[in-house]
Amino acid sequence: MREVIILGFTGSIGTQALEVVSKNPDLFRIVGLAAGTNRDLAMAQADAYGVPKQRVVFGASDAARLVGDVRADVVLNGITGSVGLAPTLAALQSGATLALANKESLIVGGELVTRAKKRPDQIVPVDSEHSALAQALRAGTAAEVASLVVTASGGPFRGRERSSLLDVTPQQALAHPTWDMGVVVTTNSATLVNKGLEVIEAHLLFDIPFERIQVTVHPQSVVHSMVEFSDGSTIAQCSPPDMRLPIALGMNWPDRVPGVIPGVDWSKAHTWTFEPLDNEAFPAVELAKSAGARGVTFPAVFNAANEQAVFAFHRGELGFVSITDVITEVVEAHEPQEMSLEAVLDAERHAREHADRVIARMAQ
Question: How far apart are CA 104 and CA 200, in angstroms?
């Protein structure tokens, strides 16, 4: 029986985690919950899962406190955005296994997060791509890994040239072909910023150089990522696109949860395709690689500038293709600081302010 704290339990990841827990009462028991602002739903779910009221908190700062105060075997961080950094650090400090769905905390925290680990396997990724990589990496030793291959659905604008994206509307950007996600993550998937962030995440999680991390476009979203080994073999993790699988594995790592989702139906014909990434139409991946390779506070600035640009896009103040233009300008102007939590927060604040100025200028 694993005692679990779920952070962001009223969101997409959190609600699916609750479903996994409810179907596997012999494996998991919830001992703490943190949510954003949906108090009515939060309290109803806390009652349903028998969680004491004093172990239900709201906001990232209280989530970090909860993790420090309540003993748990696993902390699932499903908070959205870089505000999840403090809870991530608190979870690592507590010694619990961190099932990490909040990629932003790893990306902006960088070495702060990786240095905080108390054991090599303390962080277990919940993103479907990184869960797939973690599973495939079990097929060989670290010395045998040639490259990581991260798959991308391509988003709603796969195959389109950059010039055809000038008039994209927010509604079109939110029409993801596979996943049902929030506004920021869905827009990031349309720009492929999300894939760029995932490349940085893969580098930090698995200590593989950026030049050995590839992205391939796989519209069917059944092959979630692959590892190529030194002898030329490639190991892929395949399953229907359902986040309950990586969530369950993250909470029960390294053991699998039986029957968590139905597998691929091999009695039917399937066609899976793979295409090269169009870096001209979608420059976000190369921008993210560059920011990630510079390290220190550059990834935090990349992420913050993108969030401001996405918000402006949905307010009708910025064009779709200009999202990456804003990121480029803000990242290039950044003067990095030595890594600390204060430096990350300061870099994010300055990046958001700079991004807002760039957006205002572009809107004139």
Answer: 10
How far does the chain reach from its first CA to its final CA, in angstroms?
Answer: 58
CATH number of 296-364: 1.10.1740.10
Tell me the HSE value of 354 on the side-chain side, using a 13 A CA sphere.
23
Instruction: Confirm if 70 and 62 have CB atoms less than 8 A apart.
Output: no
All structural domains of the chain with their residue ranges = 2-126+243-252, 127-240+273-281, 296-364
Q: Tokens representing 83?
A: 């505000």
What's the CA gap between 253 and 177, in Å, rounded?
Answer: 29
Amino acid identity for residue 212 in this structure:
R
CA-nearest of 109, 140, 113, 293 to 209 is: 293
Closest by Cα among 227, 212, 254, 255 to 139 = 227
Tens of pLDDT, residues 37-83: 778 888 888 888 889 989 999 999 999 999 999 999 999 999 988 89
